[in-house]
Write a structure and sequence with these properties.
- This protein has about 140 residues and is an all-alpha fold.
- It has 1 helix and no strands.
- The radius of gyration is 59 Å and the shape is rod-shaped.
- The mean pLDDT is about 95.
Length: about 140
């Protein structure tokens, strides 16, 4: 009987071992299946995040490019207006300079005429004095 009991115990042990192994394979398979589905889910989420990041990056680059264009256009307008203003100032300065030159020329011309007139007057005065002194000596001689 002990041999029969021993054989039954061995058979029971083998059956339990097989059942345990089958159960372990089933759990391992299910575990592998869960792991793969988690990995796939995480990979999909990572792919989605990368795609969203790329779109966000592209949108930011486009926004920055648009802002840069706006700033460049604004600066171009400011430079154009400043050049126009400086051109007007230059024209005004040129006109002012030309009028001062004309005024100086007119002043110098009038001074020159005055000097010429004074010179003629002094020559006439000298001539009349010379004629008087010649007449004086002619009458004396």
């Amino acid at each position: 009987m002990t041999e029969i009991t021993q054989a039954k115990a061995n058979r029971y042990k083998e059956m339990e071992t097989k059942r345990h192994q089958v159960e372990m394979r089933k759990v391992r398979g299910q575990s592998d299946k869960n792991y793969k589905s988690e990995v796939e889910g995480n990979e999909k989420q990572l792919k989605k995040m990368r795609s969203e990041f790329a779109v966000s990056k592209l949108n930011l680059e486009n926004e920055l490019e648009r802002k840069l264009k706006n700033v460049q256009m604004s600066h171009k307008i400011k430079i154009r207006d400043e050049n126009r203003r400086l051109g007007q100032q230059l024209d005004e300065l040129t006109k002012s300079h030309d009028s001062k030159i004309d005024e100086t020329k007119e002043t110098q011309r009038s001074q020159l005429e005055k000097m010429v007139e004074q010179h003629k007057d002094s020559i006439d005065t000298a001539r009349t004095q010379y004629k008087k002194s010649i007449n004086k000596y002619e009458f004396d001689a």
